[in-house]
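Incident review: delayed structure delivery

Summary: a single-chain prediction request sat in the queue longer than the usual turnaround. Root cause was a stuck worker, restarted by the on-call engineer. No data loss occurred. The affected request and its eventual output are reproduced below so the record is complete for anyone auditing the incident later.

Affected input:
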Amino acid sequence: MSLLYGIVTGIIFGFLLQKAHVLRYDKQIGALRLIDMTIVKFMLSAIIVASIGIYTLKDLGLIQLSIKATSLGAQLVGGTLFGIGWGLLGYCPGTAAGALGEGRIDGLWGILGMLCGGALYAAVYPFTKTYIISMGSYGKISLPEIIGINHWVVILILTALYILLFYFFERKNL
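Output delivered after worker restart:
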């Protein structure tokens, strides 16, 4: 049943990506150049909705969270590689797949890059586990735990900040 949920939510997410025009190369480059915040607004909206939905389900006892350990080394190396790939290709992994689904062949390079990157990661995982993942490891923590307040307070504050950011973007026609 969980596979069915994954397929259904994946189709819905892909549909929303397409409708928000975030699969377009010009939107991706606009986000990288900080002149078009369509992708930022889309992702912040997804974060707000997901945070509220996940923590509602958690508080109702319908799900349990399985938080991964925080590793600054992994975040820095992975984020840097992600940024380099996004900058070179003009697509992030999800939008590369969506672009290919829309018939844009340039997205295929991103998918090939993901496959090669995954194979390379598997090959160097022992090194990565020893030297990178262990660097700056803080265990299984979350922002509410770090600052010691209820998760709903954090969600409400972030939601308010995101709404202010949306307002700013709209005023600046970004």
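Verification: Helices lie at 2-19, 25-32, 38-59, 72-89, 93-101, 106-133, 143-147, 151-171.
Action items: add queue-age alerting; document worker restart procedure.
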